[in-house]
Design brief:
74% of the residues lie in helices and 3% in strands. It has a two-stranded parallel sheet. The chain is elongated. The relative contact order is 0.12.
């Protein structure tokens, strides 16, 4: 994410404030709302794909990190159904397979290694 000084210097607050909050909180619903409302602007700037693919993974990562901190055990393991439940709270209808797919993508793309059972 851009530094606050850079955002202020180029008056990009309207564009990035909602994203920054959603990413920090791991809030998928807010991220989707902000991305949807700024879709045309992001396409014109040529960053829509980056936002939807790369930044969305960071939102998932931050959500997973929060869940991990709440539910982790001393062996540093995370119960996948607990993460699935957290996803369902933000994206109703999420299946266990979809949650596992998100975790696999995080491990592959963001290089986060967790042990799951």
């Amino acid at each position: 994410m851009p530094k606050p000084a850079l955002i202020q210097k180029y008056s990009l607050g309207r564009l990035f404030d909602g994203f920054i909050h959603a990413v920090k909180q791991g809030n998928i619903q807010q991220f989707d709302r902000v991305a949807g409302s700024l879709e045309e602007t992001l396409i014109q700037l040529g960053v829509y794909h980056v936002v939807q693919e790369q930044l969305r993974l960071i939102v998932y990562r931050n959500l997973l990190r929060r869940v991990f901190r709440l539910k982790s055990t001393p062996e540093a393991r995370l119960d996948i159904p607990f993460f699935t439940s957290a996803l369902r709270m933000q994206l109703p209808g999420t299946t266990a397979d979809e949650a596992e797919g998100i975790i696999v993508n995080l491990i592959a793309k963001v290089k986060y290694a967790f042990f799951f059972f």
